[in-house]
Structures are given as structure tokens and as C-alpha cells.
């Protein structure tokens, strides 16, 4: 059932736009991350409720078919726009017209009124979304996932600010969208304060976590599978290797811990790949590890399937999420769902994902010495670590993808109802 009452428009088919990254891509590589998980998880669950979902994304390989079924009721359409490979995210605005043209052509092959609603993800998709909205005469719901003005206000020293073009693009999308999806009340307020969004068109819908995959398990078995010694203090990090995610903060903090506790053995598991296409100089984390004399302590692991990532989380004593900005931080939820406490930066949605002092700890700022102190509070206190671990999965259980879809459907219904009222 897709609507609450018979007098309101039914949602039969949704067009989702995820221009710069595909839900089929492996999170932790290139530009793929939490947004990929979000788009994929919500699409599958919408389809289970009888709504057809078609996701438009940019083709990044000549091997991609024009259309590919991701799951029953979910179709991914690969739109050719620019060269298949070698485009960094900041070069994609130059392909907006080409991508939009591909989206329009795909819709033109269908019967009039084929799509009932658009949901765009990230500002680039929003630019295409509001063009399609006007052409198709359907409402547009937009999820920013990250906001340039927020990122520019809290950057790593080695990071580059978001360009003016993105700021303008985001302002345009916020103004044109019929509904805006915010992950948290904090993000909703940022849309109001920084982008002049109208409060009555914002819906707060937190992301979820797949507890069928991420769940507590045997730490001993996980460590044996990963060949991690039982007596090592294990810290894990998962995400793209880029300044925004701040894995360097974790390494510098571990270097401090090794000086303070020379008798203890540490192991750091870094799961993820370089951000972007690799043409821009990557974050040199391996070099930093060697400089800090951590090269025998740090294991760099390739991005992996969710079930394998869960095993990494189960093996760890804690998972660190030291990002400078996160609109939510799905890794924090996935780690807690796996029964592992999280130490996270007190920024953005991480302040919602982690219950400070209950399922993990929040750290103000990114000073490695302060981080080392907070990490030690868990690592050097087995009773505290066990208590936080016992409560971690309960915190994650407050969030589910089905609840996320409930919230999205309510937002979609508001958008459809408002559009119908305007037409009348």
C-alpha cells in the first residue's frame, strides 16, 4: 500500500537520480560510500512495498548495460555522459547537460506519466532532478547527503573547499525541490540557516542499518578468521581514504597510545580505498603510518562486502569514526549493530548515531592527544568496553531501513498531495 487514503495520489513508479555514484558500486571505493548504501537499501524496500524504482546513474564502464535489474522491482539505468572513466567529482558538472539529456530520452520512450515522482540524491542529481521535474510535471524530493557550506565550515587542513559552483547549485536545488529530506534535526536546521529552506517542506528521516547482516558475533572467531592475535587491542576504521574522513587522526592517536602503553600490543584495521578516481594525489596514509612507526601495526584492507565488514567490526575492540563532517555516518550504526562500541567525532549526524557514554564515546575536535585519551578509556578498561559493547546493538536497533522507508513514503505522499492540489 503506497498511500494513506484513497483520495490521495498513488505512487506507482519512482525515478531516483544518483548521478555521480551507482548503488551497484562497492562502498569505500572511488566516490562510493554511505549514499550508495542508502539508495540501494531504500530502493529494495520500496520495491517490496509494491513501488517500482528506476535509478539513473552515470555509466562508468562500456561494459555497463543500458539497464540492469538490481533486485526485483529495482532497475538501474546507466546513462552515458562523458568518458566512462577518469572523471573526478569536480569535473562532473560539465556532464550535467549530457546526463540530463540521457534521462529525458529514457523517459520519452515511455508512455506519458510513466514516473509519478523524482527523488534526487546529492546536489549534482538535484540539478538534473529539477529539470526533469518541470519537463515531466511531477514533484521532486531531494536528499543532499552532504552540504557544501557545512563541509567548508569544518575542513581538514589538507582538504580543499567545495567550489562556488556547488554552493550555487545546492541553493538552486533547495529552492526548486518540493520536499527536502534531512537525516537529522541538525541537518534540517542547517538547510534553514544556510540555504533559506522553508521549514514546512523539510522532512527529517534518519537512515537505517541492515541488522540481518550487521549483528553481534564471536570476537574470538572473527579474530581467528582475520589472523588477529587474541591479546591485541584492535581499533578499526572503515571508509574512503580522504581528509574528510580523517583516518590520519586515528593513526596519530594510536602513536600516542603506543608511547603511553608500551607494554600493550595494538592493531589497526583500515578498510577502504582511495577517494575519487586516483588521478588526484591520494591521502598518503601508508606513508604516515611508516612515519609514525606504525607500519607493523596497521593493516590496510580492501573495501569488502557487508558480511566481511561485519566480521572486521566484530574483531575490533572499538571502531573509530573521526570524520570532520558526517550528515549521519552509517559506519557508526553498522559497527554498533555488530556489537562494537564506536568512538566518533562529535559532528553532524554522528551525535545522533552514537549515544555518548552508552554505546560509545563522542570526541570534540580532532586533536590526536585528546583522541588517544578517549580511546584509552575503552581500550584500557575491559569492563567499560564490555558495557558499551553490550549496549551498542541496542542503539543501532533504534534505526532500521524499514523505518527510513516509512518516513520517505510519508514525504512522497506530501509531495504528491501538494502537487495534486496545485493542479486542481
Describe the structure.
With 424 residues, this protein is α/β, with parallel strands linked by helices. It contains 15 helices and 14 strands. The protein has helices at residues 34-48, 96-108, 123-136, 148-153, 164-176, 185-195, 219-226, 247-260, 285-291, 306-315, 330-337, 350-353, 368-379, 382-396, 401-423; strands at 13-17, 52-58, 67-71, 74-79, 117-121, 140-143, 179-182, 202-204, 233-238, 266-271, 298-301, 318-321, 342-345, 360-363. The chain has an eight-stranded mixed beta sheet, with helices on both faces. A six-stranded parallel beta sheet has the order 11-10-9-12-13-14, with helices on both faces. Helix 3 runs parallel beside helix 5.
Unreliable residue stretches:
1-6, 277-282
List the strand order in the largest sheet. Answer: 3-4-2-1-5-6-7-8
The largest sheet, given as strand count, sense and whether it forms a barrel, is: 8 strands, mixed
Strand element count: 14
The percentage of residues in β strands lies in 15-25%
Q: Radius of gyration from the CA trace?
A: 22 Å
Number of helices: 15
Mean pLDDT, rounded to whole units? Answer: 92
Amino acid at each position: 500500500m503506497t498511500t494513506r487514503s484513497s483520495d490521495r495520489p498513488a505512487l506507482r513508479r519512482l525515478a531516483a537520480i544518483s548521478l555521480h555514484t551507482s548503488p551497484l558500486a562497492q562502498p569505500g571505493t572511488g566516490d562510493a560510500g554511505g549514499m550508495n548504501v542508502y539508495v540501494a537499501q531504500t530502493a529494495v524496500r520500496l520495491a517490496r512495498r509494491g513501488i517500482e524504482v528506476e535509478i539513473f546513474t552515470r555509466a562508468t564502464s562500456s561494459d555497463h548495460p543500458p539497464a540492469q535489474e538490481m533486485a526485483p522491482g529495482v532497475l538501474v539505468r546507466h546513462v552515458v555522459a562523458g568518458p566512462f572513466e577518469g572523471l573526478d567529482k569536480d569535473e562532473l558538472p560539465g556532464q550535467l547537460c549530457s546526463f540530463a539529456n540521457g534521462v529525458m530520452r529514457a523517459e520519452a520512450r515511455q508512455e506519458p506519466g510513466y514516473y509519478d515522482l523524482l527523488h534526487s540524491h546529492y546536489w549534482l542529481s538535484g540539478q538534473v532532478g529539477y529539470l526533469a521535474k518541470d519537463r515531466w510535471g511531477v514533484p521532486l524530493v531531494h536528499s543532499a547527503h552532504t552540504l557544501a557550506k557545512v563541509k567548508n565550515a569544518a575542513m581538514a587542513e589538507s582538504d580543499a573547499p567545495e567550489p562556488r559552483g556547488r554552493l550555487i547549485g545546492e541553493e538552486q536545488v533547495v529552492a526548486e525541490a518540493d520536499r527536502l529530506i534531512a537525516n537529522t534535526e541538525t541537518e534540517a536546521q542547517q538547510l534553514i540557516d544556510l540555504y533559506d529552506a522553508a521549514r514546512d517542506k523539510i522532512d527529517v528521516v534518519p537512515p537505517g542499518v541492515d541488522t540481518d547482516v550487521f549483528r553481534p558475533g564471536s570476537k574470538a572467531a572473527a579474530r581467528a578468521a582475520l589472523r588477529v592475535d587474541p591479546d591485541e587491542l584492535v581499533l578499526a576504521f572503515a571508509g574512503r581514504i580522504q581528509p574528510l574522513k580523517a583516518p590520519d587522526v586515528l593513526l596519530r592517536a594510536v602513536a600516542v597510545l603506543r608511547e603511553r602503553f608500551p607494554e600493550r600490543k595494538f592493531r589497526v584495521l583500515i578498510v577502504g580505498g582511495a577517494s575519487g578516481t586516483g588521478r588526484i594525489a591520494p591521502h598518503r596514509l601508508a606513508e604516515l603510518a611508516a612515519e609514525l612507526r606504525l607500519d607493523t601495526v596497521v593493516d590496510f584492507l580492501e573495501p569488502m562486502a557487508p558480511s566481511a565488514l561485519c566480521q572486521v567490526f566484530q574483531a575490533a575492540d572499538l571502531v573509530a569514526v573521526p570524520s570532520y563532517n558526517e550528515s549521519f555516518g552509517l559506519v557508526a550504526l553498522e559497527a554498533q549493530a555488530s556489537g562494537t562500541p564506536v568512538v566518533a567525532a562529535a559532528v553532524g549526524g554522528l551525535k545522533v548515531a552514537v549515544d555518548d557514554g552508552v554505546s560509545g564515546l563522542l570526541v570534540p575536535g580532532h586533536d590526536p592527544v585528546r583522541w588517544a585519551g578517549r580511546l584509552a578509556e575503552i581500550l584500557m578498561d575491559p569492563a567499560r568496553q564490555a558495557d558499551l559493547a553490550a549496549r551498542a546493538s541496542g542503539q543501532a536497533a533504534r534505526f532500521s531501513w524499514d523505518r527510513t522507508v516509512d518516513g520517505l513514503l510519508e514525504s512522497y505522499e506530501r509531495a504528491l498531495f501538494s502537487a495534486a492540489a496545485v493542479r486542481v
